[in-house]
């Protein structure tokens, strides 16, 4: 417990990412020391019951918790920061998972000296397979990064990058699960088109995606090598890859991620 009596973590915002982190932390270490702060009373009550944590208003959460994890939408960040400014001090650690919002914008709205760590997590944190990427603000030191990393490690892998790379991280891994879901959706539809039952097609594609991901993670081989190992000369895989290239799938995917990067930059700009 800190000298002023604050301890533990308050998750501010009970949306998908907030709940993903809360659920992972509860699975890893139980509910002790965790709080949730959610503006919707119904949602707050739901999270409190589901995870066995207290649901408090912002002032009470800041009074009790030393680490405040801000998990609101970027569009709501300025409203929250205006409220947060009255209840935080430099004894807190503010960890923000608001996509695109730079630490400088958060620091400018809070009392001087408050340490801020910016994080880009993703939704596989719900199954303890998240990818979280950290950057320190002006007042955050190694000890704050270590603390944030220990927190996020409960729900997956963690990396550190300069903040200038965070918009690219957002586009690649923050939004990344949606790209894979989109691809799986298309593959399942193709299976149905070819006459397979939907349930079977989904099972085949999901297990194939899981197996391919584990191979990429554990084999040490480049994705090109792994793809070539499946691509027999004149075979079915080569025929499929030729069609993907003919339709510009690689270029479309790169353009999509560039668009996500641009949108992340837009969200981070203060338009108030």
**How many runs of DSSP E, i.e. beta strands?**
7
Amount of beta strand: 5-15%
Measured as a percent range, the helix fraction is 40-55%
Q: What Rg, in angstroms, do the CA atoms define?
A: 21 Å
* Computed structural class: alpha/beta
Average residue-wise pLDDT: 92
Please, how many helices?
12
SSE order in H/E notation?
A: EHEHHEHEHEEHEHHHHHH
Strand order of the largest sheet: 2-1-3-4-5-6-7
Overall spatial form: elongated
Low confidence ranges: none
Note the gap between the termini: 37 Å
User: What summary fits the major beta sheet?
Assistant: 7 strands, mixed
Explain what the structure shows.
- With 272 residues, this protein is of the alpha/beta class.
- It is 54% helix and 12% strand.
- The protein is built from twelve helices and seven strands.
- It has helices spanning 16-29, 41-51, 58-64, 77-84, 103-109, 142-152, 166-174, 176-193, 198-219, 223-230, 236-246, 249-268, and strands at residues 9-12, 34-37, 67-70, 93-96, 116-120, 130-136, 156-160.
- Strands 2-1-3-4-5-6-7 form a seven-stranded mixed beta sheet, sandwiched between helices.
- Helix 7 packs across helix 12 and helix 8 (176-193) packs across helix 9.
- The longest helix is centred in the last third of the chain and has 22 residues, at 198-219.
- It is elongated.
- The model has no long low-confidence stretch (mean pLDDT 92).
């Amino acid at each position: 417990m800190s000298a002023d009596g604050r301890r533990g973590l308050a998750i501010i915002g009970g949306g998908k990412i907030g709940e993903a982190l809360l659920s992972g932390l509860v699975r890893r270490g139980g509910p002790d020391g965790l709080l949730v702060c959610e503006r919707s009373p119904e949602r707050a009550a739901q999270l409190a019951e589901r995870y066995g944590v207290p649901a408090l208003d912002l002032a009470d959460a800041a009074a009790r918790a030393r680490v405040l994890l801000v998990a609101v939408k970027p569009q709501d960040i300025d409203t929250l920061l205006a409220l947060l400014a009255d209840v935080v001090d430099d004894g807190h650690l503010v960890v923000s998972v608001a996509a695109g919002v730079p630490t400088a914008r958060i620091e400018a709205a809070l009392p001087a000296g408050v340490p801020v760590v910016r994080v880009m997590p993703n939704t596989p944190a719900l199954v303890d397979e998240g990818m979280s990427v950290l950057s320190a603000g002006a007042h955050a030191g190694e000890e704050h990064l270590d603390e944030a990393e220990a927190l996020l490690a409960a729900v997956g892998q963690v990396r550190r990058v300069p903040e200038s790379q965070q918009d690219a991280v957002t586009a690649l891994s923050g939004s990344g699960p949606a790209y894979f879901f989109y691809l799986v959706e298309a593959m399942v539809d193709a299976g149905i088109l070819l006459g397979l039952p939907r349930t079977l097609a989904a099972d085949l594609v999901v297990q194939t995606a899981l197996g391919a991901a584990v191979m990429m993670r554990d084999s040490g081989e480049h994705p090109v090598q792994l793809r070539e190992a499946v691509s027999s000369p004149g075979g079915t895989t080569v025929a499929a890859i030729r069609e993907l290239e003919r339709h510009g799938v690689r270029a479309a995917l790169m353009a999509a991620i560039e668009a996500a990067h641009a949108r992340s930059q837009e969200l981070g700009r203060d338009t108030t």
